[in-house]
């Protein structure tokens, strides 16, 4: 089961943690895991490309874990990019959980 936790504070979205494996298919051919990976890694790549910032990531060597924390120093424009793209990941994972609830838990929002 893939679980996602999104943190929101007074400044908006600030952290995401994604963990687990879907187990919906053979290793390397699991389309649910691939979907979650694509959503989250596209977020990271897009934020870095559109803001010019390099994000600090926490990843498990064996896969199945990603943690991204909002950088401390962001301009208002960089923050707007972060917030918009982050909201897109939340929507994507909520939709995936709704349609594949046996593999993806409903995201927790703190």
Structure commentary:
This protein is an alpha+beta fold and 110 residues long. It has two helices and five strands; from the N terminus they run E-E-H-E-E-H-E. It has helices at residues 31-51, 76-99; strands spanning 3-9, 12-19, 57-59, 65-69, 108-109. It has a five-stranded mixed beta sheet with strand order 3-4-2-1-5, covered by helices on one side. Strand 3 and strand 4 (65-69) form a beta hairpin. Helix 1 packs antiparallel against helix 2 (76-99).
Topology (elements, then pairings):
Layout: E1 3-9, E2 12-19, H1 31-51, E3 57-59, E4 65-69, H2 76-99, E5 108-109
Parallel strand pairs: 1-5
Antiparallel strand pairs: 1-2, 2-4, 3-4
Q: Which spans have pLDDT < 50 for at least 5 consecutive residues? A: none
Please list the strands of the largest sheet in the order they lie side by side: 3-4-2-1-5
Tally the helices: what do you get?
Answer: 2
Structural class: alpha+beta
Helix fraction, binned, reads 40-55%
Keyword list:
110 residues, five-stranded mixed sheet, globular
Summarize the structure.
The protein is of the alpha+beta class and 110 residues long.
């Amino acid at each position: 089961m893939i679980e996602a936790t999104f943190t929101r504070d007074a400044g908006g979205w600030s952290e995401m943690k994604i963990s687990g494996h879907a187990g919906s298919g053979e290793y390397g051919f699991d389309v649910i895991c691939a979907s979650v990976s694509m959503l989250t890694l596209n977020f990271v790549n897009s934020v870095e490309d559109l803001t010019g910032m390099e994000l600090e990531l926490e990843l498990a060597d064996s896969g199945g874990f990603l943690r991204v924390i909002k950088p401390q120093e962001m301009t208002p424009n960089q923050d707007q990019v972060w917030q918009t793209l982050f909201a897109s990941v939340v929507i994507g994972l909520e939709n995936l959980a709704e349609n594949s609830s046996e593999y993806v838990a409903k995201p927790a929002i703190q």
